[in-house]
Amino acid sequence: MSDCEIPRESLGFLLQDATRLMRRRFELRAADLGLTSSQWRLLVTLMKRGPQPQARLAEFIEIEPISLSRLVDRMQEAGWVERRPDPTDRRVRIVHPTERTKTAIREVKDIAEAIYADALDGLSSEARQNLIDALRRIICNLSQTTETTDEC
Predict the structure, then answer these.
(1) When comparing pLDDT for 141 and 3, which is higher?
(2) Same domain, 108 and 131
(3) 90 and 62 in one domain?
(4) pLDDT tens-digit profile of 74-92?
């Protein structure tokens, strides 16, 4: 095997492949709503954290601000979000979910939960919990500095 080949059993490949397949399944099942996985991530962020400035949303969903601006443009045209001026800083626009989002969020959550159930099918309750615990540990390990890893 050459140095640039990644074995299919590598952690990174497996995590990326699982994520890609879940994203694809979501996009197929949510197509009737007209939502992509990026749009869904933005809506979930707004519903969990409340209205946010565009720059903060870009940080939360880990995309470039210009990409977020285009995403919000499309979502605003489709009636999912609206931009309002920040009352304390006229340069800033705050992104708010619309009533359409608030109404559809339960349906979108149901789609996501069904996909998670499909993904975990055939795993025992113990295996599911072990997987979740292991992923939380990985996230914690990679989120902390070497000095604070024990705090997880």
Answers:
(1) 141
(2) no
(3) yes
(4) 999 999 999 999 999 989 9
Q: Is 91 helix (H, G, I), strand (E, B) or coil?
A: strand
Rounded-to-integer distance, Cα 49 and Cα 71, Å: 18
- Per-residue CA distances from 15 to 9, 34, 107 (Å): 10, 26, 26
Tokens of 140: 């914690």
pTM above 0.85, yes or no: no
**Is 90 exceeded by the pLDDT of residue 94?**
yes
Please report which confidence band the pLDDT of residue 101 belongs to, taking 50, 70 and 90 as the band edges: very high
Query: Do 63 and 89 sit in the same domain of this protein?
Result: yes
Residue 67: name the closest of 77, 55, 79, 76 by CA.
Answer: 55
Domain count, the chain: 2
| Beta carbons of 81 and 71 less than 8 angstroms apart | no
| Structural domain boundaries, residue 150 | 122-152
Let me know whether 96 and 35 are in one domain: yes
- Report the amino acid identity of residue 140: C
Dmax (CA) of the chain: 59
Residue whose structure tokens are 């409340």:
50
Angle at 76 between CA 47 and CA 71, to 5 degrees: 80
Contact 25, 115 (CB under 8 A): yes
